[in-house]
Amino acid sequence: MTSIFQQLDLYNFIESLGFLEPFRFAVCRGNQEVGVIQGFIQKDGGRLKQFMSRRAIINGGPWLADDITTEEIDTLLQNCIKGLKKKAIYIEFRNYFDFSKYRSLFEKTGFYYEPHYDVIVRVDGEESWEKRMESSRIRFVKSSLKNGAEMVENPSEQDVIDYYKVLKDLYTEKVKTPLFPLDFFLKLYHTSFCKYIIVKYNDAVVGGMVCIFDENAAYEWFVCGMDGVYKHIYPSTMATYYAIKFASDNGLKYFDMMGAGAPNDGGYGVREFKMKFGGVLMEYGRFKYICNPLLYKIGSLGVKLLKRH
Fold it and tell me: Phi and psi for 298 in degrees, rounded to 5?
């Protein structure tokens, strides 16, 4: 199955940014593509830090035709490695679909598998998606609305800027991983495949979500909220609820809450939060290829130290 992450619209958007380097590899049978790998190379900070943080990210995993052959997959993966190994320290497929039957082919070309969870909320069944949520989620949304919070139907660019400030504070204080610059979010605002879910309280943005979508699903890309700041106001819950509602209202099949940590994370708070919305925990995992083992080891240590402080 294909997703927005493998479509040319997203490639063209990434190409327009300047600070990410998009890539696209395809294997063809005649004039017909039967496999596609699409993603971007991400770097952080100044020149030295950029050199030490180069990674190739393939969100969603590859697109593979139902009748693609083993030889065609091998060709696709080998060309991907050849094209990226001098540009990135590692290559990572963040799978949003089940690629377990291709695992041995990935491993044959040098990738290894990392277990990683995803949370999927179905919105196309006969049973209401709201009924599958924990009652506390509905209660928190009603409480927020009753006490003056609102979901902005048509947010402005200024709303996006204010949302970014809340998101940046979250990444600085808690997430402690690099965040895309504001330009990413402003340009995404003008695309046809993005819906901003913005939550306001007392005319100020207190939370929200970037929700990108295709013909099948909507995806939670970035969510934040000033939770615990205002009494009886739950911005993160509101943003998530209305994003799922957006997927349902627009006839999509499911809402993908994206990453929910690795199985050995133990009490992973983000996973616990996401599971309260009636989703199903899926282990689609990740495939990773290390292009430069020494720099990868140094970079992994640096990330661990950064998150401790």
Answer: -65, -45
**pTM score, whole prediction:** 0.92
Which pLDDT band holds residue 269 (cuts at 50, 70, 90)?
confident
Confidence of residue 305 (pLDDT cuts 50, 70, 90): low
Spell out the domains of the chain, with CATH numbers in brackets.
4-116+284-308 (3.40.630.30), 119-283 (3.40.630.30)
